[in-house]
Design a protein that fits this description.
The complex is a heterodimer of chains A (about 140) and B (about 140). Helix content of chain A is about 75%, strand content about 0%. Chain A has about 140 residues and is mostly helical. The longest helix of chain A has 23 residues, at about 5-25. Chain B is an all-alpha fold. Chain B starts with a helix and ends with a helix. In chain B, about 55% of the residues are buried. Classes of the chains: A mainly alpha (about 140), B mainly alpha (about 140).
């Protein structure tokens, strides 16, 4: 806990730099749910950069498993809860057009009112869900 | 050639983003839940992730849009222009938050942790893709909701 806020802030800075690079190079907002969702929609015409970006995320994960396995936390919920959570996250982020990255980082940075409303909403329901589910698995 | 470079840069952005998630602690569901739940052993450190990211991106976003006429590899910037505060936004964000608080995982960390071999995260990501697909399907039937 003592120094974890430093790595949290540094990680945040990296996320900000990555998002800035994507905007500078491809003119896109680094919203993970939007990037991934675009790959699932038949209407999408720009798939290549999306695949490349998601490929980068996967590479980071593979390296983490080899070099820093402690950075991947153990499961807290049973697979059934995790699957329900995944469905809600997938449907909700496409309905609300964004997640922690698109609304949380990029949207708040752009002073978007839509993103402010989205962040206030998902922080509230996230807190409620975490409280209610509590230590249960 | 340019196309290859452009995809390489997008991949580099993805690696950096993933590294940021790993370093920050966002790939540890127990910490995410500890951050979201103020009634438990509240751990506020993950607020610094958003703080650090916004500190960089708020400045970078303005500079990039002001200084460069176009991105390196595209004709124009694709920045969201929608303004409406509609029901979809609020309901969608609410559902997302419930899933996030339940599993302690959001889309980016889920994908990174799945690639690292976490079965839990793999279940999450597959379910997430199904949920996204479900929304795309329902959009065809009820475009306004």
């Amino acid at each position: 806990m003592s120094s974890s806020w430093i790595s949290a802030a540094l990680g945040g800075v990296l996320i900000g730099c990555a998002s800035a690079l994507l905007l500078l190079a491809h003119g896109r907002i680094a919203g993970i749910s939007g990037i991934v969702g675009g790959l699932l929609s038949p209407a999408t015409t720009d798939r290549a950069w999306r695949y490349a970006f998601v490929g980068g995320l996967l590479v980071a994960g593979v390296f983490a498993a080899a070099l820093a396995p402690a950075s991947i936390g153990a499961p807290v919920r049973s697979p059934l809860f995790v699957a329900i959570a995944g469905l809600l996250v997938g449907y909700g982020t496409r309905l609300g057009n964004g997640c922690t990255s698109g609304h949380g980082v990029c949207g708040l940075s752009r002073l978007s009112m839509r993103s402010l409303v989205a962040v206030a909403t998902f922080m509230t329901t996230g807190a409620l869900a975490a409280m209610i589910a509590g230590g249960r698995s | 050639m340019t196309r290859r470079v452009s995809l390489f840069v997008a991949a580099v952005a993805g690696v950096l983003f993933g590294a940021g998630l790993l370093l920050s602690g966002m790939t540890q569901p127990a910490r995410v839940i500890g951050f979201l739940d103020p009634t438990g052993a509240w751990d506020p450190t993950l607020a610094f992730v958003m703080g650090g990211a916004i500190a960089v991106y708020a400045v970078a976003h303005r500079l990039i849009l002001r200084r460069s006429g176009a991105p390196w590899f595209e004709l124009r910037f694709h920045v969201p222009e929608r303004r409406a505060l509609d029901l979809q936004l609020v309901v969608g964000a609410a559902l997302f938050g419930i899933g996030w608080g339940l599993a302690g995982m959001c889309p980016g960390p889920g994908i990174v942790a799945a690639a690292a071999g976490s079965m839990d995260a793999l279940v999450f990501v597959v379910a997430m893709l199904v949920g996204m697909h479900g929304r795309h399907r329902s959009k065809l039937r009820w475009p306004a909701v």
